[in-house]
Write a structure and sequence with these properties.
Blueprint (H helix, E strand, L loop, with lengths): L1 H20 L11 E4 L4 E3 L7 E7 L4 H19 L2 E8 L3 H11 L4 E5 L3 H5 L7 E5 L5 E5 L6 H9 L1
Parallel strand pairs: 3-4, 4-5
Antiparallel strand pairs: 1-2, 1-5, 3-6, 6-7
C-alpha cells in the first residue's frame, strides 16, 4: 500500500512540475499584433505554415546582446532549415531600438512590445527568452539561450 501512495505522490509531483514548466503539453503560442520599427503592424498569423523562432529581448540586457550575436551567426543555417526569426523587443523606446539595430547591424525583423502586454501574454519573466514554434505555431521548445545545438535539440523533439 505504501508503494502505491509513494508512486501516486511521485506522479502528482511530476504532473505539477510539467504544468509549472509548461512544456509537457503542446500549447499554441498566443497571436500578437505588434508594430515593427517602421510602423507596420505584424502578427503571428502572418507566418502561416512557417516555423518561427520568437525571441524576446531588451537593449539593456547583456545576455540579450550575446544572443543577438549568436542569432546573427546562425542566421544562414536558420533560414536554410526553414525557420523565421521574429524578435520582440521588450520595453525599450522605438528610437533606442532603432539605434541599437543600426549599431549591431540586425537584419531580422524586430517588433516593439513597449507596453509589455505581449510579454505578459507569453508569460515572459526574464529576457532573453526564445520560443520555438512549429508550423501550427504550437510551442515546441522554450529556453533562455540559443544553444549551438538548437537544430539537434529540435530534431529530437520532432522525432
Amino acid at each position: 500500500m505504501r508503494k502505491i501512495i509513494d508512486l501516486k505522490n511521485a506522479l502528482l509531483g511530476l504532473l505539477f512540475l510539467c504544468l509549472v514548466a509548461g512544456n509537457c503539453f503542446a500549447q499554441t503560442a498566443p497571436d500578437f499584433l505588434l508594430k515593427d520599427t517602421e510602423g507596420k503592424i505584424c502578427s503571428l498569423s502572418d507566418y502561416k505554415n512557417e516555423k518561427i523562432i520568437v525571441f524576446f529581448w531588451s537593449v539593456r540586457c547583456y545576455y540579450c546582446v550575446k544572443e543577438i550575436e549568436r542569432l546573427k551567426k546562425f542566421q544562414p543555417k536558420i533560414k536554410k532549415d526553414g525557420w523565421k526569426i521574429v524578435s520582440i523587443n521588450v520595453g525599450d523606446s522605438k528610437s533606442t531600438v532603432e539605434s541599437f539595430i543600426r549599431r549591431h547591424k540586425i537584419d531580422f525583423q524586430v517588433l516593439l512590445d513597449s507596453d509589455l502586454k505581449m510579454s505578459m501574454k507569453y508569460g515572459i519573466y526574464g529576457v532573453p527568452t526564445f520560443f520555438f514554434l512549429d508550423k501550427k505555431h504550437d510551442v515546441e521548445y522554450v529556453d533562455n539561450y540559443f544553444s549551438v545545438y538548437w537544430d539537434e535539440d529540435l530534431d529530437e523533439l520532432e522525432n
